[in-house]
From TrEMBL:
Membrane topology: Multi-pass membrane protein
PANTHER family xrefs: EAMA DOMAIN-CONTAINING PROTEIN (PTHR32322:SF2), INNER MEMBRANE TRANSPORTER (PTHR32322)
InterPro entries: AA-Vitamin_Transporters, EamA_dom, EmrE-like
Predominant location category: membrane
The name this protein goes by in its record: DMT family transporter
Domain EamA per the UniProt entry, residue ranges: 1-133, 142-276
Family: Belongs to the EamA transporter family.
Species annotation: Lentzea sokolovensis
Amino acid sequence: MLIVVVGWGSCYALITWGMRDVPVLWFASLRALVAGLLLLAVLLIAGRQADATVLPRRASIWGLIGLLALTNVTLTFGAMFASTSGLTAGAAAVLSNSAPLLVVLPAWWLYAERPRAVEIAGVALGFGGLVLVAAPTGLGGGAGLAVLAAVGITAGALLARRLTDVDLLALGVWQFLIGGTALSVVAAVTEGPPTTITWSARFITALLVLSAGATALPYVLWFGELRRASLTSVTAWTLLVPVVGVAFGVAILGERVTLMEGLGDAIVIAALLLVIQSSRAADRQRPGRHDHE
């Protein structure tokens, strides 16, 4: 999971760096499409047969894959990239990675993963921290888009539980290619044709690192963990993503953390620590359940 944390934590610095040469939504769609093509190449090199786990035969499964692509890729990537125009990289990383706070109640309702009182307290405390982080930029604009990205990640985590019969690599291929194609249509409508992209060495480097190291590999590991452990315990690992995001923002982009943002970051991290510690305790008490850290 540390690979996931570092990969996702670097996203906003890479996005901010690469957007000097490309419109926002085109950058987001290219990230998804390149990641999908990279996973497709791995799938073909591995010689996976086109069986029902790679090419599902049921329309209902394709419907779920399509919904996953639209929420976890089209919505999440689009909102995530667009949010960078109204937030610092560190604040955007905090808000868009609030999925652990959002997944607790849906996981209880859909999959009987009942949260403990301390987890509910952690959710309430965490949202208080998010308000402090969002306050300097207002509750709309970049902050609202970053939270919308978190909603997309949460929906993707919940949907992943219903797609455990699909090959893990194939699931990544389909969701990135379908979601990236849909996002490219949105980009073409809102930003025009991709003729304004400057294919500089800086942009190509940012795109490749973002697509491979911060998208394809982390998402495969992420979905693999979602199949093995409780949703709350897995999503709680993203508590480290904002910390890494803030560090990358300071180190690479020269951003400064305000006192209000720093306090909000600390509260969010404390809340997520409460959630993950409670989840670990619950996993240890649950027969046949093992931590996958």
